[in-house]
Fold this sequence. Notes:
The chain has 24 helices and 35 strands. Residues 283-321, 664-670 and 953-957 have low confidence and may be disordered.
Amino acid sequence: MRHFYHKLRSQILYMIILPYLALMILVMLVGSGIAITLVADNWQERFNNQLGQVARNFTESFAQREIGNITYLGQIAFTAANEANGAPAIVNAIRDHNTDGLDLAMKGLWQVGLNNENVDQDRLIIFDTNGVSLLDWERSAANASDPIRYFGTNLADLPLVKAVLSGKETPIAGSDRLGDKYSGLIAFRSKNSEDNLYFFTVAPVYVQVGDDPKGTLVGGLLVAQRLDTLLQFLQSKSQAAISTIYDVNGVARSTTLTGVDLMDLDLGDTLINQVAALNTPVAGTVESSGGQRSGEVDDPCLDIGNLNGRLITPLESTRLPTCSVNTTAVLSNREYQVVYAPLLIRGVLSGYFAVGLSRDFVVSAWSSSRWAVLSVTAMLAMAAVFLGYYVARRITRPLGDLVDTAAAVTSGDLARRSHVPDVNELGQLSTAFNQMTEHLLRLYTASRELNRTIEIDAVLSVVSAASASFVPDTEVLALIAADEGYLFRTRPEAPDHLRALIGQQIPATHPLLANLAAQGDPESHLFPILDAEMRSQVGLGSAAGVQMLYTAPLFRQRRFSGALLFALTSADTLDESQQQSLAVIANMAQAVLSNAVLYAQVQQDAKQRQAILTSISDGVVVCDDQGQIVLLNRAAEQILDIYDWQQARLRFADLPLEQVSQRREVFGQGNDEQFQLGDRFITLSRAPVVAEDSQALGEVIILHDVTEAVAIDKAKTDFIATISHELRTPLTVIRGFTELLLRGRGDEELTADQSDLLGQVRARAVDMTNMVNNAILIADIESGQLRTELQPQDVEMVLSMAIAPIRQGFEAKGLELNLDLPPDLPPVLADREQLKRIFSQLLDNAMRYTDTGAVTVRASLNDQGNIQVDVIDTGRGITPEMLPMLFKRFQRVEGNNSAQRGGGLGLAITRQLIDRHSGKVNVVSTPGQGSTFTVTLLQANEHSLAVAQSNGTAAAT
Length: 957
């Protein structure tokens, strides 16, 4: 079990696929559960909303029917006489009991009611003050336009008719108004002696007499619709599946449901009480809520809106209880969701109604959605498993090959190679890994062979073989310092035309050697000799089969001691990687070759060894294979101040050498490591001592006393600082008086030539001042006096400070200066004055080398969360050869000899200041199209401030 668990943890395949599968399955299960729940709840909620809307539509349609009845009765009551057909006014006909006139006048009005879907009457009765009908018409099933006429109908015993004939006005529920029109349910007996239930509306009719505003009651009007017909109309309007109307006792009086006995639909006392309880105003509720209950989670209340069922004017607000019971019921073998609510007619409970929708839609929708979700989840889970496994294998298989190869290489098998055929990043990584391994193998072989020999010829053979493995047809020669010059040395197997150079001597004054000696002591760098005449002078011209020559100077104890010459038979120049490979070989061979030369000299004259060691100005320390000092020359004794080393048995590693950090990166040579021993400063180089049997016997350490050079370097820096400070004072005076003269403060105005000359004087003074300031800044940097106070700085403000003094220069050259800064740019962590100096130098550089166009400063927040500032110009651009040296000291763009050319220190200072801010600077340029200098600085936040303080850079020196 432990082995299985270790296997799971040790292979990326399982580390990728197992969490991925677990997460995917968990997400899918949770997602499918949530989806099914949400789908079910959503369908049920939609169904409830639809049912509520059906109930609202039902009661609104019912109310519209009552409004239509009242409107229709108003039309009848206010119908005037028709002179065309001799029909009298309806009111007058009622007053005069003119039944013939009523019959004539009502023919058109009867058709008007039939054409109005909110009236569509089944019975119309006009009666006198005794309640006896003057006109009683009933819709005919055969022809609705020709009604059935009844005579002598007596309505006097109907309570609502009595209220109308007595002129009674009752309050309208939910308002402060009185009404004289009434609606309700009534049963009329048909000709076949069946009682049919009607919904009716009755209204009084008044005749205006004298000044009485109300008039005299002359009778009344009644319009009614059959309840079963009305119910069909309401169902069509509400889009309900079933509809039922009950009386106040809960007895079903009419329904649209077929195949069910009405008695089976009667409401029980429990349901009636529940509807009543839900629609009872709650004590203490706010009036705006209408006393409506706000049900608990299990409260069956369903708000279906206004259920008053009466005429409502636009100025009247109603706040009646509007809750209903929402339940399910099985009717005719089908499950319905039914809403039971009170039927209010003109604010009076006249019964109950129920509307319902079939639940088949919800059940089927939920079932189909559930299986659809589960099916999609299952398919996605399977697809995720296969896809995850496939992706993991595509990644882990080549990674496994790379891991196995890396393990083999680490164990010493440098001949092992990775085999990844993919063309993606893994394939590229495999190719690069193989190239790196091959490179290491060649270098390792060369290093091993070099460590095995100390003969000059053998060293050259190893170096030639190693160089030819990187650059075919390459021969390596050496120029070794002799008494009066430098002698050629080649490997024994070299071609005859090169072996012919052995013994030839080149004077130290030859330009080739002078140029190499002037290069200093660089590391990992080759120098091409492009001058064919110079190659011919040393016998390495085209006549000798050499088309290109690369050189690597050899230094021993910081003194030029010769050179390695890489002779190529091809005229093509080497690319950077090839030069780097040859430079690494040269560096490895340098110490070995130096030791070989020393070894040859020692072997040649063993008797003079002690004298040679004594005459060497540098200290020589010889240690055994345990690191103990076995030999010191006189210089080493003086440098180390050790004279009893033979008795003390000291180890070189135990000497109190302290490494010295160097800041002299501009004027000084800050590349070599220096050590301090007391008051002395020294540098050292090491070389192993190997016997003929390849056994390491010890190590030779060369000590070079650079105390005087350090003192001279410091004196040089101090001298530059002193001279620069002394020069700045007169330059300030010159600039001040020149600007004063240019302002025209004298008695006479300056001529154009005088102004031009003074302008040139001022410009040169400004340039000299800038150069002096640069020199002072360099002195401060190298002396350690410059402090860097890192604080949050606003980029826009510092840019404005940097632009202000040089804006006039842009205007004088006709250059546009554009700023593209986002308004929400975060602050940077920087020293304000040094950041201003950085921006000033980059802007001044852009102005100097841009003749036309514009200079744009753009700032943004890069992907790493740092602030990136780009200075973009449209100048002449920089050649690719110049770009690598652009930020080094005294490097200037070739081809610009104008007065605006800088001193070659500005960009070097800029780089050092940016390094102090833990930032980066680089440049991208296209000759003829301009350059873009990019500065990347840290964003000022809690993390960067904490890091700066912990590193001690908040006040760096």
